[in-house]
Amino acid sequence: MLRLEDQAVRLCDKVPRRSFMQIGGLAMGGLSLPQILKAQAKSGKPSSHKAVIMIFLAGGPPHQDMFDLKPDAPAEVRGEFKPINTNVPGIQISELMPRVAGMMDKFSIIRSLVGAEGRHDSFECCTGHHFRSAQPQGGWPALGSALSKVEGPVNPTVPPYIDLSHTMAHHPWNIKSSGFLGLEHAPFRPDGRVMENMTLNSISPARLNERAHLLKGLDRFRKVAETRLTDGTYDGHTKQALEVLSSSRLVEALDLEKEDPKVRARYGKDSPKVLNYSLDKGYQAIMSHFLLARRAVEAGARCVTCSFAHFDWHGKNFTYARKVVPLLDQGVAALVEDLHERGMDQDVTVIVWGEFGRTPKINPRAGRDHWPRVHAALMAGGGMQNGQVIGSTNRLAEEAVDRPVHMQEVFATLYHNLGIDVASTTIEDNTGRPQYLIDQQTPIRELV
């Protein structure tokens, strides 16, 4: 285990420096980063750098108030928000999402998403599998873990699967891990929640604010590591772990001080108290995670996941939506605009969704309840034919009446965009039996 002592410090952007430096070792189940790298040595073949950024909206976002408004429905269904035109003729979305509306040609909306179980859980959004499907021993791996197994790392110092999500109080909402693929394909979480802390020797908070002293601390860390490698204290996989820990590539990807201030401003300010109950539960609107996701992919990550805020609004649906949805609009629009400006839009697919939809009828508490029969998703990038709406619901947004799209079709599309043929690609489970990545293997024809 690697542990270098120091204290955390907050910089002018209110983000602790330790959040950038806590990348010491993935320690799930007692397995350290060197052990994980040793296991990863059995896999990892080079390929073109396609990637996915998945934004999980825990709780089930209200599709009627975001992507599938029904202005002609009765008042108890249509709610308080009005639809607005987008830059694609004939497509309207919520007035709370003007930024996405202004660049709708870069997005696609699925309004007829089906296949949700109805549980408050990220499982289906992370794995593509239904709760009731027979699971192999160890459980189904998340998309990022499957991608780590099939494709391996782009760069040996950048983990292929990175999760930027907060730890959420409702445990099933937390982003899923590697299932039967084992800890070597688990998500790398740079917030330190499943890792050993890594900090810098003898660096005071005052000195840590200065970049020069930060670099000196890293240099001392490398020298100590090199000495221990020479005297045989560390093995070859620990050496690789040290390269990950001290690689400027990963550290700089997670350091927003490296980003153009104008780009950072476009993404907006973090809002950990966006909901009056959210701070201590992990349901925060951290706008910088959208930017970190782009930076992580740019550095070499193949899959980046992040959760955003909280959408389980059984009461005060419209009050909470006015707080959360405009921030989501800003973050997602900034991310997709950024990908296009950097020429990454053909390679990086963005998917924004939650585990199910909300009831058409507004309840007495001005909320919407659980509705697994249909929901919506927003997609962008991936070289897809964007600027369209796929599917439709009836006049109350309660059923898919045209082109139902199963959640597994979304996964088939993600894999297709990644260059993976799900009809022929398998991964072995714990018994050595080959398992297909998903059951329904046809991507969304309108997009590919």
Automatic annotation (TrEMBL):
InterPro entries from the UniProt entry: Alkaline_phosphatase_core_sf (IPR017850), DUF1501 (IPR010869)
SUPFAM superfamilies associated with the record: Alkaline phosphatase-like
Pfam families listed in its UniProt record: DUF1501
Q: Would you say which domain of life the source belongs to?
A: Bacteria
Put simply, this protein is called: DUF1501 domain-containing protein
The organism named in the record is: Gimesia aquarii
